[in-house]
Design brief:
By secondary structure, this protein is of the alpha/beta class. It holds the Pfam family Cation_ATPase.
Length: 725
């Protein structure tokens, strides 16, 4: 509210009431709006936790691949030089020698191509895009793609109360009128209250409710009422209607002389009325403790106005505390008679009122919120409530939601901002509720959690002033229904139904993205290790690589493009929310992944060595062709099927049943099927291009069977090689 004490208009705001002449003192970035926008433009270029880890993984894999490529090329070149040295033709190089060197160089380049995880960005993008599409169905609109995975690493959620943890649909459920406390949770109770109160009290109560309000009651077709205004105002108006009041008749019966809208400093609002029978009356309504302090009289149980004695004052204050402890928002209604001739230029009196009564307004906790908070806590995510509400109300709601525990702290914003840095460092880990907080308090809390404690923080917000905190957080969650446009612009994800349970769903999808990318990396590293070691070993031992450049590129396509498509689209499971968050410092390649990678790599490496050593004699015994081309084709085919079955194993890094839910993932089945189909085409029909030859049915069965052996080996690894998760 603009007054003589506070004569400043903020740019970007709208004039809701009144008229004035305005002098512009600052423009652009010097205004408060400009400073807010400057806060939003600070930083914002930080990489997400997963991006940091993936960059490290990609760099390591690339360096290892380059090392093996250089060594392999050097060994192969050494072989040809040694041969020519022994033949005495070191100085004579033919075109065939040049082609041989070129082939060796192609093998080295292919090793680099296979090693470099160019499919990693594709896997990340596919997984994020898939999650983004599915999250939209779950009432979460993702504005920044990276936010899908960041939420999976979240260790803290700082949530608003009103509208997020609660429904933001308020109703009057208790009252203290004529010094008597009544339960109004059933609408019939409110109707009967009107008959229990003296008519003079009902009349003045309805006059206060319907005239001292920023809301409105609109009569629609068939006599139905529509309530307009804030949730608090509509709750009071609904209470008035249940008492049998007529909004339009009451408003028309009195003439409004002066209105003072709700003031966040005074925490109350007022109106001055000229009564139909003569006389002037002022009504006020606001925070119970403030309005009650302005009263020196009260309406007693007989409907008479009496002096507000100490005993009565204590009774009313105890009632306020009791209602607040029951998670109710309390308002006090009061009035006073004024002298005739009241001038609209005068201020409405600030004291001398008669207390009509106190109402307790319930904003119910959303269904499922307590379970969602418990799910977060079991998943290692700390949930904190940050609200501007009364601390008793905030604590009661927090206990009802399961946020506030016995060892947690509830603190008020003014107390929080008065603490020193050392005190904050000791206090912040214990804070579970912050009441009467300002947007700056929320920003400070988030900044300390991120920088001092290295937490990954998600923040909810709906107001324009929440924008800095939303921007400061690792992931900002704006409310789609109650949120302002500025808040939505600053957020990474918009919660379309303003529901805390949806935030938990976002976290689940975020973890799914993280795990899916881990599955892909496990899958890719297994192929990398086998391809690099086999080619390196064969080059050193025989002077040639068993897998040609074309074959390695086909394997690379399987593990990059098709592998990313298959593993990046796995849907989330409830098991994901039973793990602790990875945070910023968790290892991306876990001990479980290393066990699976090394176990499968060793198996595949031994298989290929066995085929190189005994493959010809084995297939000769079974009447099959045994040329070098046939053997190399069998090795290539076996390697592909070991990849293929390992792709199925990679669906679950810890669970033994890797086939659970596989029929529900049509993309995975399509990828595996198409890989099998194209492998047949390459072996049987593209021999000249891929350096392969058609195989017999028995040879195909052997290749598939050897590849399948990777699945029981994976089961044995998970059962008998336990690692700490």
């Amino acid at each position: 509210m603009i007054t003589a004490e506070n004569p400043f208009l903020l740019s970007g705001t709208k004039v809701q009431d009144g008229s004035c002449k305005m002098l512009v003192t600052t423009v652009g970035m010097r205004t408060q709006w400009g400073k807010l926008m400057a806060t939003l433009s600070e930083g914002g270029d930080d990489e997400t936790p997963l991006q940091v880890k993936l960059n490290g993984v990609a760099t390591i894999i690339g360096k290892i691949g380059l090392f093996f490529a250089v060594v392999t090329f050097a060994v192969l070149v050494q072989k040809i030089i040694t041969r020519k040295w022994q033949a005495g033709t070191t100085t004579k190089w033919s075109g065939d020698d040049a082609l041989e060197l070129l082939e060796y160089f192609a093998i080295a380049v292919t090793i680099v191509v296979v090693a470099v995880p160019e499919g990693l960005p594709l896997a990340v993008t596919l997984s994020l895009a898939f999650a983004m599409k599915k999250m939209m169905n779950d009432k979460a609109l993702v504005r920044h793609l990276a936010a899908c995975e960041t939420m999976g690493s979240a260790t803290n959620i700082c949530s608003d109360k009103t509208g997020t943890l609660t429904t933001n649909r308020m109703t009057v459920v208790k009252s203290c009128i004529c010094m008597n406390v009544k339960d109004l949770s059933n609408p019939d109770y409110a109707s009967s209250l009107a008959s229990e109160l003296p008519q003079s009290v009902v009349k003045i109560l309805l006059q206060s409710i319907f005239n001292n309000t920023g809301g409105e009651v609109v009569v629609r077709r068939r006599g139905k009422h529509k309530l307009l205004g804030t949730p608090t105002e509509t709750a009071i108006l609904e209470f008035g209607l249940l008492l049998g009041g007529d909004f339009q008749a009451e408003r028309q019966s009195c003439k409004v002389l002066k209105i003072e809208p709700f003031n966040s400093t005074k925490k109350r609002m007022g109106v001055v009325l000229e009564l139909p029978g003569g006389g002037v009356r002022a009504h006020t309504k606001g925070a119970s403790e403030i309005v009650l302090a302005a009263c020196d009289k009260v309406i007693n149980s007989d409907g008479e106005v009496v002096s507000l004695e100490e005993a009565a004052m204590n009774h009313l204050n105890t009632t306020i505390d009791q209602l607040a402890s029951e998670a109710l928002r309390t308002l006090c209604l009061a009035y006073m008679e004024l002298e005739n001739g009241f001038s609209a230029d005068k201020d409405i009196p600030s004291s001398g009122y008669t207390c009509i009564g106190i109402v307790g307004i319930k904003d119910p906790v959303r269904p499922g919120v307590r379970e969602s908070v418990a799910l977060c806590q079991s998943a290692g995510v700390t949930v904190r409530m940050v609200t501007g509400d009364n601390i008793n109300t905030a604590k009661a709601i927090a206990r009802e939601c399961g946020i506030l525990t016995n060892d947690g702290i509830a603190i008020e914003g003014p107390v929080f901002r008065s603490k020193t840095l050392e005190e904050l460092n000791e206090l912040i880990p214990k804070i579970q509720v912050m009441a009467r907080s300002s947007p700056l308090d929320k920003h400070t809390l988030v900044k300390h959690l991120r920088t001092t404690f290295d937490e990954v923080v998600a923040v909810t917000g709906d107001g324009t002033n929440d924008a800095p905190a939303l921007h400061e957080a690792d992931i900002g969650l704006a409310m789609g229904i109650s949120g302002t446009e500025v808040a939505k612009e600053s957020a990474d994800v918009i919660i379309l139904d303003d529901n805390f349970s949806t935030i938990v769903t976002v976290a689940k999808w975020g973890r799914s993205v993280y795990v899916n990318i881990q599955k892909f990396v496990q899958f890719q590293l297994t192929v990398n290790v086998v391809a690099l070691t086999v080619n390196f070993y064969s080059a050193c031992r025989t002077g040639s690589a068993p897998l040609t450049a074309v074959q390695l590129l086909w394997v690379n396509m399987i593990m990059d493009t098709l592998g990313a498509l298959a593993l990046a689209t796995e849907p989330p499971t409830d098991e994901l929310m039973k793990r602790s968050p990875v945070g910023r410092k968790g290892n991306f390649i876990s001990a479980v992944m290393w066990r699976n990678i090394l176990g499968q790599s060793l198996f595949q490496f031994i298989v290929i060595l066995f085929l190189q050593a005994y493959g010809k004699s084995f297939f000769r015994l079974h009447g099959c062709p045994d040329s070098d081309l046939v053997l190399n084709t069998i090795i290539f085919n076996t390697f592909v099927f070991c990849q293929l079955f390992n792709e199925v194993n990679s669906r679950e890094m810890e669970k033994i049943d890797v086939l659970d839910g596989i029929l529900d993932n049509s993309v995975f089945l399509m990828v595996v099927g198409s890989t099998f189909f194209f492998q047949i085409i390459i072996i049987e029909y593209l021999g000249t291009f891929a350096s392969t030859t058609p195989l017999t049915f028995f040879q195909w069965i052997v290749c598939i069977f050897i590849g399948f052996l990777g699945m029981p080996i994976a089961v044995a690894l998970k059962k008998h090689v336990p690692v700490q998760t």
